[in-house]
Please model this.
Amino acid sequence: MGVEVRRVLPGPGLIDAVTLVADLRRAQHQLSPFHDEVVSLCADLARRLRRHPEVRRQPALGALAWWIRAAGIERLRRHWDAIAAVDGTVRVPRGVVFHVPPTNVDTMFVYSWLLAALAGNANVVRLSPGAVETTGPLLDTLAATLADHPMVAASTAVVSYGHDDAVSAALSQGDVRVLWGGDGTIAALRSVPLAPHATELAFADRFSFAMLDAGAVLGADDATVSVLVDGFVNDAYWFDQLGCASPRLIVWVGDDETTATAAERFISALRVQVVRRPERVPTSAVVAKLVHAASVAADGHVTAFDWQDNDVTVADLDDLRNTPRDGPGGGLFYRARIDRIDDLVDHVTRRDQTLTTFGFESTDLHRLAQTLGARGIDRIVPVGQALTFANHWDGLDLLHAFSRTRVVEVGP
Amino acid sequence: MSPLIDDALAGPLFGLDAAERERRLFPVLAELTRHHVAASREYRRIVEALFPAWRHATTVAELPYLPVGIFKQRTIKSIPDAEVFKTITSSGTTGQAPSRVHVDRTTANRQTRALTSIMGAVLGPVRRPMLIVDTDAILRDRTGRTARAAGVVGLMTLGRKHVFLLDETMREQRDRLETFVTEHVDTPKLIFGFTFMVWQHLVETFGATGVDLSGSTVVHSGGWKNLEERSVDNDTFKRRLANDFGIDHVVNFYGMAEQVGSVFVEGDDSRLHASSFAEVIVRDPVTWAPQPVGEPGVVQVLSCVPTSYPGHSILTEDLGVVDAVDTPGDPLGGKAFRILGRLPRSELRGCSDTYASAHGR
Model:
């Protein structure tokens, strides 16, 4: 019995999902970790993306090109060598990986796919029908690149379908399923069984925030503040503040007076920088921010609300513990103050992902990372790097997760 | 506070100029703001956070307003649970939580009074035979009153010998229409329905069948959203009703579940007007200050009616424009405005729940 699915890459057509997984498994047998064909495809794709006219309008394409440049892949290879270097073992691919990327972060599926391919796996990527339209330029570039790399093309399929459990079930008969789409997607796909031996990587909805040292911001020169604010604007506004790593809360560390002055300096500079962007926050998103802040205020947790500027809206919280973690995006920043870094720890939840920081000592941040223990926060990175993709994501080493260990013990 | 509101409801309904309206409305709406601040902890907290200078307001435009979406997010009311007489819900946009407002007997009575007096001014004192372009199944919805049911039930008191054009399966009943026409020949009739339903179930279905409804008044509401896709605007709507049915009196009105009773009605100038116990302000979506005449913006609606929940000043998600103020010879007076449609829904990108949301799970 067949379950048909529309293939987008390589080469459009209707194909049988069960046969597809079998074909991919066969093609995978030709691959191995950091296979020359995959490595050269990365370099080729990076080159094409850099030259693409769309790269100017879509900085995410440039970021992707940078990430898969030769030096980037070389770094990943060294990391692979490190994790594979365990005596008495061989690190091998898992097999066929089924990726369900988020539709709206257009480039995400390429990172997910290439990391799995570098680990030596065959891959099938599910795009929503809507995503196929919005990712057009990227998909065209991928099609052209795959055409020059037949071995990788044979081990890769990008398919497109709506909500169809039969197709999802067929594609889940591989070895790893990767769900990037958030809580709703995870809930919808968890009911679709995996092959018994398979594993799943699920990336849930997350919350991220910035932590700034008030004294450091106040003491910084204008150029430093400008760089800081630039980075913050990229972190917050690139995905309309709705990326899992986009900061939605600003935690100030310092006394009342220093914080008040530093926060004023930061927000003023932020307003100047945000207004330089070509896009304005749409009115319906502004109204959504108003509704969200009003609802938090109704609970008694907003002490002041600054909405003089539609693009940068700031709501002061009575206490860090009352942070709402479901903000509507569009530049609504909740704000709180603590006296010392250590005061942060008790308010971190498992949902928290990226902590962007400015003005702290390395030793303090390392101590924080230790103290947090099993609580949330998977990344502590400087302001400006919230959205930089890394092999380590949500606490997982993806190259490691896309591979497995084969033990080899030879008798005397 | 009650005497002030009752005065507002008892005064002349239309025809006051803008200055007089402001003079009469401000004290009532300011009093209502103080009332809700005192009676609702949630409202007080919101107002103090979002409008810290609210106590210093000296004009209607300076009074606080709540974004209408807050009624979808949570319960905000100014009465204890025991005094809730009914809860009015509106379905809102697909996929969104419904809006819920809590009404006690006093507010419910005032809603009815307000609606009856406004519509009375439009239709005159005599109750007419009434055709409702909807299904009678809507009357069975006695519990959680939807805004649609509340609207139909509220308007029904304005007519008599009610006939519903649609059966329970939303199919047009030609025999009911024909009986309604033959039973009331030469009698002024009242036809009511939501704008889209009047178009689809009356105009499109019976327009070419030669039904004579001359002497009738059509009262409709609900907006043009679905009709814009079919290139039907107010002029087309009126022209078809006149040409196909001989109806030369068509009155649009604008209202919402969060302000039941306090409706804005269309005058002979084809513009909407506030009664003397309601007001409209079109706000600049960048500065949120009131827009000058002719500049479109976000519509804020104010009403002296609700005391059981703080719905006396609401920022809607509609776009509108004030075309004129105090036009000489305009019997309705005050602002003449139009609704231009809903705020375009934003397409913020984000990274979550695409598989789920795309398929309604």
Notes: Residues 256-275 of chain A form the longest helix (20 residues).
